[in-house]
Please model this.
Amino acid sequence: MKHIHYIVRETGEKQTETVPGENWLRWLYHHPFGKLALHSIVKRKFLSQWYGNRIDTPDSARRIPEFIQSLGIDMDEALLPQEAFKTFNDFFIRELKPSARPVDPDSRALVSPADGKVLAFENLESLGTFFTKGQVFSLAHFLQDSDLTDKYSGATLMIIRLAPVDYHRFHFPGDGRISRSRVINGTYYSVSPYAVKNRMKIYWENKREYSILGTDAFGDILMCEVGATMVGSIVQDYVPESMVKKGEQKGWFKFGGSTVILLFEKDKVTVDPDILHNTRNGYETRIKMGERCGTEAHPARK
Model:
């Protein structure tokens, strides 16, 4: 895998992703000596925790201007100016102006919970369209709950991958009641396509947290936030067992690219066709928080 390509939704054009540490990732996941370092050191919690502590220091703020410039981050969207951030992590989890991420108001519209690149599969049997063929998404390992494994058998799956350049807060994709979050401890592999395309089980090997959003329009949506290499932590910022609105903030990831995975009960949502088309052709689609990614599958008659 030489480069990561994705589709720009607005234009349909294919672009190449700028990946910080790209050569390092290739070495770690595709070279014998890199794999040795990966399994002995890089995937361990202590390395990500150590790095997370480093970028929480005032000295880390010096990295902010270069990071903005090298990745072309639009600071006009940020709620606070660049000089207001006292550490790199403060900048990394920056809030945006409300106008920067309008939320689709249509009650039938399911919206993306995060900025990133999205893959979508109408059922769990079709993952070979993007991932290396022969791999199976193991709900039993991912959820570690037999009742939920049965509930989401034949589920529709969305995977929203956040790269370091992205806005790193995540939100609710619809109106509903949100449960408590269950934490499943694990390792800290990268969630870049360099890593997961040939090793899907990273999604159920990494540390992750999931909760259930009960909605009228889309059924019970399982929302899972997955940690990754150099992600300091997953922070949940909502009140469990409360009613929430589409687009409201749920939490954030500290430094590092990471992933939000959505599982929908069978036949509850219709994914937007362009996202499905791009996934079938082996491409992620760039998406923003609040942007429509699907609709209610069987709307009630008015």
User: Anything to note?
Assistant: DSSP finds ten helices and 17 strands in the chain. Residues 132 and 198 are 5 Å apart (CA to CA).
